[in-house]
Design goal:
single chain; alpha/beta; eight-stranded parallel β-sheet; 26 helices; binds glutamine; binds zinc ion
C-alpha cells in the first residue's frame, strides 16, 4: 500500500495576525491598497511553503481570502448586489459588501455550517452569473512564480454556494444549472493555464438531501465536467456524506473526500457499500476542528480497514484547518506542559499527516503516545451533581404571565423598554489596560480602578441617552467566552492562538481539558458597582453554557451534553448569588444556540434536549421577580423559534436587522408570547441607523407581537463600535421608543 497526502483550508490570518492588522490599517486609511495586497501575497506564498515543506503531495491554493471565501466566489461570479455597483473600485466594493458603508447596508453575514466561521451571504437577485475574474488562477500563478510548485486550487462547490445564498424566488435548481456553466468555464481556464487538479468543497452534501437535490447535483456535475479533463475532487466535511451510494457512484469526478473524524459514520458506509474502483478516496483522518493530537494507532488501523475497499487512498485533514490556530508552538511558554503535549494545531496536523505517510509507506513504527490525560482532571463531586439532575423537573415556576407582571411592577419599566446587549466600545485604551494588567505592568488595584471609571462613564452615558435597562459595559472581558473560561476550572486559555471568526475578527477558543467548576465569582463585582451608580435597573450578563461550549474546543472523552451541564451548574451558582445580591435582571447570552445544531435533522432532537435543559438548569429555581433575558444573534433562527421559546426566558433580544427583519416572519407561524426585543439596527457596521429604518423593523414586528411584550435594542453588543457612532445610534433608537410610546397613548 502506498498513500499520498493532501491538506486544505490552512488558516489565512498569518502567524502574527498579519492579515487582521493589514486589513484594519487599510480600512482606517493608514496604509495603501498595495501594502494590503502585499501582505496577502506574503501569507499566500508562506502558507504554501509551509505545507510544501512537510512534503505534502498536494498543496492547496485559493484557500486564502481577504475577507471571506464565499464573498470571493460571489464577486468572481458577478453576484454583486445592485446597491454596491456604484462603487467603482473593486476592492472597496468588496469590503463594502462585507462591512457596509455610511450609506449602504452590508450584506448579511451568517455562520458557516455548524462552525463559528461567518460568511457573507450571497444575494442572488437574478442570474447574472459570469466569470468576472479568475481568482483561483491568480493564486495558482502567484505560488507557481514564487515557489515553482503546481498547487491544487480549492473552490466552494456550486451546490453548497447556492445553498448558502439568499435567493429571490424559488429558483435554486435553475440557478444551480446556470452556475455550473460558469464553473465549467472556470475549470477550463484553469486547465488551459496548466492546473492539473482542483478540489471542490461541498460540505452541503452532508446535510439532508432530497431526490430533487440529488438530481440537480448530478445534472450540475455532469455539466461542469463535460469537456473538462482536469482532475476534479469533491471534498465533504463536518459530518458524513448523505446519500453515500447515490453520490459516490454516480458523479463524474475523480475522487471524493470524507470527514472521518466528525463524520465517522462515513467509515461504515464506505465499508458497507464499497468504493468505486476508478475514484480516489480522500480520507480526512486528522481533525481540522479539534485540537487534540491524532491517535496514530487508530488511524493506522483505520487505513488498514479502508485498504480492503480501495487502494487509491489519499490522507488529508478532516475539514478546513482554518478552525484551528496556526501552531501550538506559540503556546509553549503559556500552557502547562501536560496540556501542551496533547495538542495539535494546523501546522502540527500537517506534520501528523507527514508522519502517517512515513508509517504507511516506509513501515516506520507507530510512535508511542500517552493520550489519556483528561481523567486526571476529573472531579467526582461534579459528576455526582450531574447524575442528580432530574431532566423532567427543569420547568421554572410560576408561568411567564405571572412572573412578567411581577417583574414589571418591581422594575417600573415604560412601554417599549430600551436596552443594549451588554458590551460598550472596547477602545484601544481598554484593550491596552487589560493587556497591561495581564503583563503585570499595572497593579490589580490600578486595573480595577480604571475599569470602574469606564463603568461610571458608561452608566452616565446610558442615563443621558435615556435607556431604560442599563449594563456595565463588559470592559473586563476580552471575549465573551474566553473571559468566563478563564474563571472556570477545566479550561485552558491560550495566548497567541487565534482563529478567524469573520473578516479581520479573530478569537482564541479556550480548551476544555478537565471537569468544569467556578474558580471564583464571575461578574458580581462589576455588575454590583454599576448598579450602585444608578436608580435604573442594571442587567447582569453572562455567556450561556451552549455558547461557551460551542466556542471552545471540547475534550472528546465525554459527550457534549455532559460538558454543557457541567458549565450550566457552574453558571447556576453565579446566577443564584447575583439574585441574592439584589440583581433583578440577568441575561444569559446564547448566540451559538443555533450554530450548535447538528447538520443532519435526525440528530436535532437530541441536541435541543440538552441545549434547552442546560439553560433551564440555570434558571429553573429563579425567583419569579428575577427577569431572565437571553440574547441570540447571527443565525437563521426562524425554523427553531419553538425551541427558543422552550428556553422560557422572560425576554429575548434577537438579531433581525442585518437579515432585514426575516425573523419576524417566524412569528406568523408561531405565537411568541414572551417578551422580545427585535434587534433594530446592525451593530457590525459603522453606519448610524436612521429613526425611519428602525421604525420600519419595529412596525413590521408589532403586527405580530404585542405592544406590551416589545423591547427595543440593537442586534448585538457594541464592543466593536466607536463611542461617537454608538451614542448617535442609541439616541436615535431611544427616539424610536419615545415616538412609539406617544403613538400608543394617542390610540
Ligand atoms: N453580551 C455580549 C455583548 O454585548 C453578547 C455578544 C454576542 O452575542 N455575540 O457583547
Ligand atoms: Zn449578539
Amino acid at each position: 500500500m502506498f498513500i499520498k497526502t493532501l491538506v486544505f483550508g490552512y488558516p489565512r490570518i498569518g502567524p502574527q495576525r498579519e492579515l487582521k492588522k493589514a486589513l484594519e490599517a487599510y480600512w482606517n486609511g493608514k496604509s495603501s491598497k498595495d501594502e494590503l495586497l502585499k501582505t496577502a501575497q506574503t501569507i499566500i506564498v508562506n502558507n504554501a511553503k509551509t505545507i510544501h515543506g512537510y512534503e505534502i503531495d498536494s498543496v492547496p491554493s485559493n484557500d486564502f481570502s481577504l475577507y471571506d471565501f464565499i464573498l470571493d466566489h460571489s464577486v468572481m461570479f458577478n453576484v454583486i448586489p445592485e446597491r454596491f455597483k456604484t462603487i467603482p473600485d473593486a476592492l472597496d466594493r468588496y469590503f463594502a459588501i462585507a462591512r457596509g458603508t455610511e450609506r449602504l447596508a452590508a450584506s448579511e453575514m451568517t455562520k458557516w455550517f455548524n462552525t463559528n466561521y461567518h460568511y457573507i451571504v450571497p444575494e442572488i437577485e437574478k442570474d447574472t452569473f459570469c466569470l468576472l475574474e479568475n481568482k483561483p488562477l491568480k493564486e495558482f500563478q502567484l505560488i507557481k512564480e514564487n515557489l515553482g510548485i503546481n498547487t491544487k486550487p480549492v473552490l466552494v462547490g456550486p451546490y453548497t454556494y447556492i445553498r448558502c445564498a439568499k435567493l429571490w424566488g424559488d429558483k435554486a435548481f435553475e440557478l444551480l444549472i446556470k452556475l455550473s456553466q460558469v464553473y465549467r468555464q472556470l475549470l477550463q481556464e484553469l486547465e488551459k493555464k496548466g492546473v492539473e487538479e482542483v478540489q471542490i468543497d461541498e460540505p452541503a452534501f452532508v446535510t439532508d438531501l432530497t431526490e430533487d437535490d440529488l438530481k440537480a447535483i448530478k445534472k450540475c456535475y455532469d455539466s461542469i465536467r463535460s469537456g473538462v479533463k482536469l482532475r476534479t475532487y469533491i471534498q465533504t466535511y463536518y459530518d458524513s456524506l448523505s446519500e453515500y451510494e447515490k453520490l459516490v457512484f454516480s458523479l463524474p469526478i475523480n475522487g471524493f473526500g470524507f470527514d472521518l473524524v466528525d463524520g465517522a459514520d462515513n467509515i461504515e458506509k464506505i465499508l458497507k457499500f464499497g468504493y468505486p474502483k476508478d475514484k480516489i478516496l480522500i480520507a480526512g483522518v486528522v481533525s481540522g476542528r479539534d485540537p487534540w493530537r491524532v491517535n496514530f494507532r487508530e488511524v493506522v488501523d483505520l487505513i488498514e480497514r479502508l485498504s480492503k475497499v480501495t487502494d487509491n487512498l489519499i490522507l488529508s485533514n478532516s475539514c478546513p484547518l482554518l478552525h484551528l490556530p496556526i501552531t501550538v508552538e506559540a503556546e509553549k511558554e503559556h500552557l502547562p506542559k501536560e496540556i501542551y503535549d496533547m495538542l495539535s494545531f494546523a501546522k502540527e496536523r500537517i506534520a501528523e499527516l507527514s508522519i502517517l505517510k512515513t508509517i504507511i509507506n516506509e513501515g516506520m513504527e507507530v510512535p508511542k503516545q500517552n493520550l489519556s490525560i483528561h481523567e486526571k482532571f476529573n472531579n467526582p463531586k461534579i459528576r455526582q451533581k450531574i447524575n442528580k439532575i432530574d431532566e423532567s423537573k427543569l420547568q421554572r415556576q410560576p408561568e411567564f404571565q405571572f412572573r412578567y407582571k411581577k417583574q414589571l411592577e418591581i422594575l417600573q419599566l415604560p412601554l417599549f423598554p430600551t436596552t443594549t446587549i451588554g458590551s460598550f466600545p472596547q477602545t484601544k485604551e481598554i484593550r491596552k489596560l487589560r493587556a497591561d494588567y495581564k503583563a503585570g505592568r499595572i497593579t490589580k488595584e490600578e486595573y480595577l480602578n480604571s475599569i470602574d471609571k469606564e463603568i461610571e462613564k458608561t452608566i452616565k452615558i446610558q442615563e443621558e441617552i435615556g435607556l431604560d435597562v442599563l449594563v456595565h459595559g463588559e470592559f473586563e472581558r476580552t471575549d465573551m467566552v474566553e473571559f468566563f473560561a478563564e474563571n472556570l476550572n477545566g479550561f485552558a486559555i491560550t495566548k497567541n492562538s487565534w482563529v478567524q471568526s469573520y473578516g479581520s475578527r479573530c478569537v482564541r477558543p479556550p480548551i476544555i481539558y478537565g471537569d468544569i467548576s467556578r474558580k471564583k465569582p464571575l461578574i458580581q463585582r462589576e455588575t454590583l458597582y454599576a448598579q450602585s451608580l444608578t436608580e435604573k435597573p442594571v442587567k447582569a450578563i453572562f455567556t450561556g453554557p451552549v455558547t461557551i461550549l460551542q466556542w471552545s474546543y471540547p475534550r472528546k472523552d465525554i459527550v457534549k451534553k455532559e460538558l454543557s451541564y457541567q458549565i450550566a451548574l457552574a453558571l447556576k451558582e453565579e446566577f443564584e448569588e447575583l439574585e441574592k445580591l439584589g440583581i433583578k435582571i440577568i441575561q444569559i447570552d446564547e448566540p451559538a444556540f443555533r450554530e450548535g445544531l447538528p447538520l443532519k435533522k435526525a440528530k436535532h432532537s437530541l441536541y435541543f434536549e440538552w441545549a434547552i435543559n442546560s439553560f433551564r438548569i440555570i434558571t429553573k429555581d429563579a425567583k419569579p421577580e428575577t427577569q431572565v433575558h437571553t440574547h441570540m444573534c447571527y443565525s437563521d433562527f426562524n425554523e427553531i423559534i419553538d425551541k427558543i421559546y422552550a428556553l422560557d426566558a422572560d425576554v429575548i433580544s434577537i438579531e433581525a436587522s442585518r437579515s432585514k427583519g426575516e425573523i419576524i416572519s417566524a412569528f406568523e407561524k408561531f405565537k411568541y408570547d414572551h417578551a422580545i426585543g427585535i434587534g433594530v439596527y446592525d451593530i457590525h457596521s459603522p453606519r448610524i441607523p436612521s429613526i425611519e429604518e428602525m421604525m420600519d423593523i419595529v412596525k413590521r414586528s408589532l403586527r405580530l407581537i404585542d405592544n406590551s411584550l416589545f423591547w427595543i435594542n440593537p442586534d448585538c453588543g457594541l464592543k466593536t463600535r466607536a463611542w461617537q457612532e454608538t451614542i448617535a445610534s442609541l439616541k436615535n433608537m431611544v427616539k424610536v421608543a419615545e415616538i412609539l410610546r406617544k403613538e400608543a397613548k394617542n390610540v
